[in-house]
Amino acid sequence: MLTGTGARFAAAAEGAVLEQAHRLRNEIVSGITDQAPGGRSLAEPSELTLARRRLLGFRGTKSLLVRADLRNSVSVIKRGDTVFVGIARSAKSRDDEDLVDIASVQEFGSNPIVIPITPAMRRFLGALFREAGRTPEPGAGSGAGVVVVQVPARPFLRPAMAAFSRDLDARLAASVLRRFLNGGPRGV
């Protein structure tokens, strides 16, 4: 067990790491809010995505921000000597969707997803195309058919972490020193 100076230094180092972890969390959150994580602009939602949002009663036009479930789930978690910054495995949306899976799809994009068209979906697709001001694809009104969608990558964690890591060693060292010196006896 550390005592005296060693304990003060350990406490200063732990506080500095937590401070930087919260700064990284803020960088990720502000990157989503500002639509430019790490200074890299996010791809805008497609016109069909925006039309879908309007049909479902959402007004937002930003990428990754429909109800802010994903942005608000970015967390700092400390367990023992480890500090995690990101989306916790247990994070769920208001609709009970797994936010880690959603974050992964947004970060890396998806493979093509083939969705069989049901009669209800056919009606929704017609409304969606009308809302977007587009004419439905030829043959969209007949036959069983499928829809193939692919979510493009919209990295929000990696660019924020890369930008944040610049000069991290210097910021961390300065924070440890400041905390260590301010935690010492008065007059030092």
How would you characterize the overall build of this protein?
- This protein has 188 residues and is mainly alpha-helical.
- The protein has 2 domains: 4-110 and 151-182, no CATH class; 111-150, no CATH class.
- It is 48% helix and 11% strand.
- The protein is built from 7 helices and 4 strands; from the N terminus they run αααββαβαβαα.
- It has helices at residues 4-34, 47-55, 69-72, 99-108, 119-131, 158-165, 168-182, and strands at residues 74-79, 82-87, 113-116, 146-149.
- The strands form 2 sheets. A two-stranded antiparallel ribbon has the order 1-2. A two-stranded antiparallel sheet has the order 3-4.
- α1 (4-34) packs across α7 (168-182).
- The longest helix has 31 residues, at 4-34.
- The two termini are 25 Å apart.
How would you briefly describe this protein structure?
Helix content is 48%, strand content 11%.
What is the radius of gyration computed over CA atoms, rounded to a whole number of angstroms? 23 Å
Number of helices: 7
Strand content: 5-15%
Distance between the termini: 25 Å
Percent helix, as a range, is 40-55%
Low-confidence stretches: 184-188
User: Quick check: average pLDDT?
Assistant: 89
Structural class from helices and strands? mainly alpha
What pattern of helices and strands is seen along the backbone? HHHEEHEHEHH
What is the chains' assembly state? single chain
Q: Kindly state the number of beta strands.
A: 4
Number of domains: 2
* Structural shape: elongated
